[in-house]
């Protein structure tokens, strides 16, 4: 995954878009969301509970932590 460095405020005319997924998909270690381009800090929007989840690591079984501080999803 490429990275860009910049300074100054971030402005979006169209809002910020997150990839969308479901609780079932986040919980499946073999799913593409857990096996490709996953790294600590990657965020997704869970349409099951309408929360943003952030990956805490790059392994397929690394937790997804919800934005409300609730129980993490651990892919299995």
Share of residues in helices: 10-25%
Shape: globular
Q: Overall pLDDT, averaged?
A: 89
Spatial extent as radius of gyration: 13 Å
Strand content: 15-25%
For the record, give the distance between the C-alpha atoms at the N and C termini, rounded to a whole number.
24 Å
Number of helices: 2
Strand order across the largest sheet: 1-2-3-4
Catalogue the unreliable spans: none
Broad structural category: alpha+beta
In short:
By secondary structure, this protein is of the alpha+beta class. It has helices spanning 23-26, 32-35; strands at residues 20-21, 43-46, 51-55, 64-66.
Write the layout of secondary structure elements.
Blueprint (H helix, E strand, L loop, with lengths): L19 E2 L1 H4 L5 H4 L7 E4 L4 E5 L8 E3 L10
Account of the protein in words:
The protein has helices at residues 23-26, 32-35, and strands spanning 20-21, 43-46, 51-55, 64-66. By secondary structure, the chain is of the alpha+beta class. It contains two helices and four strands, in the order βααβββ. Strands 1-2-3-4 form a four-stranded mixed beta sheet. A hairpin with an 8-residue loop joins strand 3 (51-55) and strand 4. The two termini are 24 Å apart. The protein is globular. The longest helix has 4 residues, at 23-26.
């Amino acid at each position: 995954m490429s990275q860009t460095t910049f300074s100054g405020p971030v402005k979006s005319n169209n809002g910020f878009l997150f990839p969308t997924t479901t609780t079932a998909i986040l919980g499946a270690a073999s799913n593409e969301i857990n096996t490709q381009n996953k790294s600590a800090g990657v965020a997704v929007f869970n349409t099951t509970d309408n929360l943003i989840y952030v990956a805490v690591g790059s392994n397929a079984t690394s937790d997804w932590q919800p934005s409300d501080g609730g129980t993490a999803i651990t892919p299995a």
